[in-house]
Inverse folding.
């Protein structure tokens, strides 16, 4: 577990976005993993997850106050939370500014349709090279299509850990591109779901808002976040 914390991005979100912008501009390849307690916990039982978390090809970003607090408990100087949804939004903004090719994969068809509208209206500099819903059975087929399009930005919204596993499986087939698993971000960016009000975000209570809105998330929260904090205390 300590090795994972060592790999976490330590600097500010501002620094992170600057580096991401430069990487995009210079056609570098980057696999961004938005790490939260769920990812770390699952890696203890799943070697495939552990492998991509420890691979130097991936950048682990602390997405979730649970990870930031745990890092502080273990004396790692992690500056702040960098949320997956903010990374997704910034990438769309930068992609539009730099006239980059974007591929979207994941979420329901109606969400993907609205994502197309949002891109047309708000991020019109983007060339959308593909937009596929995440309920296609043959997800490898979609990835082969992504490879063939040579996009600059690939956002995969299938949930943890499937989105990261798929990206990692195909990463070597790409010469460039910024790759991120963005979970439920399309649901929010498309307007199908509301993000927590700013005050929740400011007080680091976005997780609470999500549980209040979707109580079925409570078990998932307990299994990952609560057990995680107990586990981390043992490493102290
Ligand atoms: N999803 C998908 N295909 C699936 C299962 C899930 O495209 O087979 C999508 C789902 O529609 C949602 C996203 O994956 O848009 C997962 O969102 P969730 O909020 O659970 O992710 P989190 O942000 O919590 O990781």
């Amino acid at each position: 577990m300590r090795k994972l914390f060592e790999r976490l991005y330590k600097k500010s979100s501002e620094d992170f976005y600057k580096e991401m912008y430069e990487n995009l501009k210079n056609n570098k390849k980057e696999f961004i993993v938005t790490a939260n307690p769920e990812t770390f916990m699952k890696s203890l039982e799943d070697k495939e997850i552990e492998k991509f978390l420890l691979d130097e090809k991936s950048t682990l970003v602390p997405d979730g106050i649970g990870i930031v607090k745990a890092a502080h408990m273990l004396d790692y100087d992690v500056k702040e939370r960098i949320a997956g949804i903010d990374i997704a939004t910034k990438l769309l903004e930068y992609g539009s500014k730099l006239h980059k090719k974007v591929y979207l994969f994941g979420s329901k068809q109606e969400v993907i349709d609205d994502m197309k509208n949002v891109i047309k209206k708000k991020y019109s500099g983007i060339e959308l090279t593909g937009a596929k819903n995440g309920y296609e059975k043959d997800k490898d087929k979609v990835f082969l299509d992504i490879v063939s399009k040579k996009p600059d930005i690939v956002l995969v919204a299938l949930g943890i850990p499937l989105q990261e596993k798929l990206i990692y499986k195909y990463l070597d087939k790409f010469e460039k591109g910024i790759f991120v698993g963005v979970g439920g971000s399309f649901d929010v960016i498309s307007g199908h779901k509301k993000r927590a009000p700013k005050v929740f975000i400011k007080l680091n209570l976005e997780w609470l808002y999500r549980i209040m809105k979707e109580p079925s998330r409570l078990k998932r929260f307990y299994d990952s976040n609560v057990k995680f904090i107990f586990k981390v205390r043992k490493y102290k």
Notes: The mean pLDDT is 95.
